Each structure stands twice: as C-alpha cells, then as structure tokens.
C-alpha cells in the first residue's frame, strides 16, 4: 500500500525497511513513524491523514435558509407488542398508497410513503422500537414524529412506557393512537388517565399531545390520525435542501443472493441520484439502480424519500449514515479508514470474550460445557423464539445457558452482566446504545447483531458444537 501510494516498487520499499532494521513482509503493517521515515528516504512528501481529514471530504456545509424547501415528515409507529403497530401500518398503506398505485404490488423496503391532502408522509415500516433505537444509537435521527399506539382494551403496558421514554429521549413529538376502539372492552379513557402517570397529557385531558381513537381493523379514525400527523408536521416546519449532495440513513440492509448488497436508504437531505458515489458506514458504493416503495425504478430520490439502493460493495448496518462524495477514491478511502478504525478499536479491547475464546476456554477446562449468552431482541415474540431455540441446542455434554433475555436496546447493564458471566450478547434487531458500546469495548464484551433468527441460532450452534467437536 505504501509502495503503491508512492508509486515505488514493493521490493524497493521492503529493502529500504530492511536497511532500517525492519524485517517487514509485503502485507505487514508498519507504524506511522517508520512509514514517514521511509517516505522521506524515497524523497516524497508526507501528509499525515487524521480522522478529521478523511471525514472532511464529506460535505457538511450548512444549508442557506433560501435553499431549504419543505419536506415530508418521517413517522415511526411505536407501542406495546400486539397493540396493533403492524395492523395500523398496513391499514394506512392500504388506504393511502400514493395516488395511482392503489392495488399495485407494494414492496416491503422498510419504509413507505402515502399522500394526505396532496402532501406526502413517510412511514418507517419497521415496527418495534428497534429501528428507532438502533438508528439513534448509530447517530442517525430519522424520525420526526412518533405515533404511540395503545390498545384501548389493554391500556399502558411496559413497552408503551419504553416507547414514551424513547420518544422523549430523542425529543420527538408524539401522537397517541388509541387503537382497537372497535373492541367491546375498549376503554379509551383508561388509556388517557394511564398516560398521565407517564407525563403524557393528551388533548382530551387538556394537554398538548394529540390523541386519536382508531381501529386498524375497520378503519375508524385513520383519516383523523393522518390529519393529526399532518398538523404536527406543519408545526415542525420540516425542511431540507434538495439541491445538495445527498445524505441519508440506512433503514434496512441485506445481502440479496441475486442482486448483492441492497440497502433501503431514507434520504434526509439533498437528492440521491443514479450514478452517485457514496460512503455508508464502513462501506462504499455507486448507485447502480434505485427502486421506490412501489418497486419502481427511479433515477433520483429527494428528502424524506425511501429508496432501495443497489451498487454497494458490502452490506451496511441499519442506522449507518450515507454521504455522497465526489470520487470513488474518496469513498474508498473513507470506508477503509473507518473499517480500520473500527478494527483497531476492537483489537484494543484486549482480552475479549468472543465466542471463539469461550470455546478455547471451555476446551481447556473439561468441566465447562455450558455456553452462556445474553439475548436482547426488538420484540418479546422474537426474544421468546430465540430463547426457545437456544434451549433446544445441546445435549448431555453441552448446553446453552441464556443468562438473561430482554426487549430493547443493549444497555450498560447488559454489558455488565455479560462481562460478569463471560457471555457474549446476541442482539436481534436491536443495537447497543452508545454508553453500552463504549463499555463493551472497554470490558472486551462481544456484542453480535442479527436480523435473522436462523443466523443467530446457527452461530450459537456452531459455537456449542465446537465445544464438543461434534455435531449437535
Ligand atoms: P403489533 O405487535 O403491535 O404489530 O400488533 P399487530 O398489528 O400484530 O396486532 C396484534 C393483534 O391485534 C392482531 O391479531 C390484530 O388483528 C389485532 N388488532 C390490531 N388492531 C386492531 C383493531 O383496531 N381492532 C381489533 N379488534 N383488533 C386489532
């Protein structure tokens, strides 16, 4: 790499290193001071690149007021499991798919747009708190409005409280959708009074949080809910500059067998165009093609528009920020720099508790045939499914022990528990918040992220069977 950058022959660089007493091979990493010495010996000029230099390529200039144009609001639906998040998202989509597309095949790309009174609204179609929390923990704030769904026959439940906490922490305004109003046992006033205890005072209780009674099943109140959202959006005066280089956030990403890595990107500022070169987290790429939420090819996507992007060199993670840059060389350099920085950080974690190390430890100690793990998932259902799958792994000689399973982002408390037990943390559709990430880095606790249960189960199976050196 060094030879390459100086346009010198590798053999000459290796020779120069040897003459300086460093027996390096072609692929060995040398420290910055040595590199500097060699560069000077070859008569080249040294420019030390810092974090800031690399990242500076990204256009972070503030937009002038006159360049800012109104943009659609981005809405996330949150609430307790089974209170109707998915049903409500489906009901809104079915009732309001952007004009002309009704009846068309809608594609799940993690977000969709509907039209209300000629204005667009963007819904993040990833129910659960995962999207919201994971995005925030990775530095992307994509949600403008939270719709808090509370079932009228169940009132405020633990994840309702959690959702309120998330919305408040992110400083995002809330609208309460009191769902299942069609149910005979529906008691919307109980929802309203319950919410008071959590400092959510709805309009009906003379507060300023809008509340709407809805039924995702028969469509009651949907129109009112969309109107409430539009009103809230107007108050927020959301704006972006469609004329600049695009910046966005990854909503979902996967490796598609036929198409390679694909990511659903919500454009947050600027306009993303076919052919644009970008860096996204530790990956980079060139927009080969884009599809909207209707599965239609589009050549460009402006602010608040979700698009599926093809042309990535690797799979980014949900919450990664995308920035368009000018050249491929810049994109590659930033991505490589970030990747290396992340690797160094992991390496610095030292005596890490990785699955592999656990395995080695277990092999050394014949009595240990237990693989401890911690599970955090986006919804209770997933957590339960994972725990059940974990219990099935193992036999007389080895078993997986789930120390703790819970719902929500991975926190410092989880990291503490994992460290104490020498367990890795398996996150399913959730991410670690910043303090937890730092703490895990310091303590050397491994956190693994999954979005497919089978992948998680397979990894644990592999580790467990590794303990025995046999198939399980
Ligand atoms: P989520 O876990 O919050 O996404 O909840 P779902 O959308 O999966 O809904 C949970 C259950 O409640 C499903 O069986 C839905 O059919 C039902 N449900 C959702 N909304 C309503 C509603 O407005 N009325 C009635 N009666 N049932 C509903």
From TrEMBL:
Its main location: cytoplasm. The keyword Metal-binding does not apply. One of its GO terms (molecular function) is GTP binding. It is found in: Cytoplasm. Keywords: Cytoplasm, GTP-binding, Initiation factor, Nucleotide-binding, Protein biosynthesis. Residues 70-237 form the Tr-type G domain. GO terms for cellular component: cytosol. Residues 73-221 are annotated as: G-domain. It comes from the Bacteria. GTP binds at residues 79-86, 125-129, 179-182. Belongs to the TRAFAC class translation factor GTPase superfamily. Classic translation factor GTPase family. IF-2 subfamily. One of the essential components for the initiation of protein synthesis. Protects formylmethionyl-tRNA from spontaneous hydrolysis and promotes its binding to the 30S ribosomal subunits. Also involved in the hydrolysis of GTP during the formation of the 70S ribosomal complex. This is Translation initiation factor IF-2. The chain holds residues 258 to 729 of 829 of the full protein.
């Amino acid at each position: 790499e060094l030879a390459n950058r100086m346009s010198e022959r590798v053999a000459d660089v290796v020779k120069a290193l040897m003459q300086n007493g460093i027996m390096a091979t072609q692929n060995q990493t040398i420290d910055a001071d040595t590199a500097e010495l060699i560069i000077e010996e070859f008569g080249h000029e040294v420019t030390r690149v810092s974090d800031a230099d690399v990242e500076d390529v990204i256009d972070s200039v503030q937009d002038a007021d006159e360049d800012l144009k109104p943009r659609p609001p981005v809405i996330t639906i949150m609430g307790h499991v089974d209170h109707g998040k998915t049903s409500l998202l489906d009901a809104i989509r079915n009732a309001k798919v952007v004009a002309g597309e009704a009846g068309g095949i809608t594609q799940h790309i993690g977000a969709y747009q509907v039209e209300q009174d000629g204005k667009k609204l963007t819904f993040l179609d990833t129910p659960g708190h995962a999207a919201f929390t994971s995005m925030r923990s990775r530095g992307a704030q994509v949600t403008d409005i939270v719709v808090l769904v509370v079932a009228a026959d169940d009132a405020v439940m633990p994840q309702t409280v959690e959702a309120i906490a998330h919305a408040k922490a992110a400083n995002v305004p809330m609208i309460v959708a009191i769902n299942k109003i069609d149910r005979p046992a529906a008691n919307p006033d109980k929802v309203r009074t319950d919410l008071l205890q959590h400092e959510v005072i709805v309009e009906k209780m003379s507060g300023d949080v809008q509340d709407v009674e809805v039924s995702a099943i028969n469509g009651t109140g949907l129109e009112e809910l969309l109107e409430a959202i539009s009103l809230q959006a107007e108050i927020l005066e959301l704006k972006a500059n469609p004329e600049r280089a695009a910046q966005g956030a990854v909503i979902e990403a996967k490796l598609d067998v036929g198409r390679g890595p694909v990511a659903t990107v919500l454009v947050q500022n600027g306009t993303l165009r076919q052919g644009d070169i970008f860096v996204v987290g530790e990956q980079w790429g060139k927009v080969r093609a884009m599809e909207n939420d209707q599965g239609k090819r589009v050549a460009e996507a402006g602010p608040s528009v979700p698009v599926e992007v093809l042309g990535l060199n690797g799979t980014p993670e949900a919450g990664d920020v995308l920035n368009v840059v000018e050249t491929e060389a810049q994109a590659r350099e930033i991505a490589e720099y970030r990747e290396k920085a992340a690797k160094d950080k992991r390496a610095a974690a030292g005596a890490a508790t990785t699955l592999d190390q656990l395995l080695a430890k277990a092999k050394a100690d014949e009595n240990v045939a237990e693989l401890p793990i911690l599970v955090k998932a986006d919804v209770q259902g997933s957590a339960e499914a994972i725990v059940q799958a974990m219990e099935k792994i193992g036999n007389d000689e080895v078993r997986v022990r789930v120390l703790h399973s819970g719902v929500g982002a991975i926190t410092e408390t989880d990291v503490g528990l994992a460290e104490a037990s020498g367990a890795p943390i398996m996150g399913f559709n959730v991410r670690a918040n910043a303090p937890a990430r730092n703490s895990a880095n310091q303590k050397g606790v491994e956190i693994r992220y999954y979005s497919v249960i089978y992948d998680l189960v397979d990894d644990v199976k592999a580790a467990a069977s590794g303990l025995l050196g046999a198939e399980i």
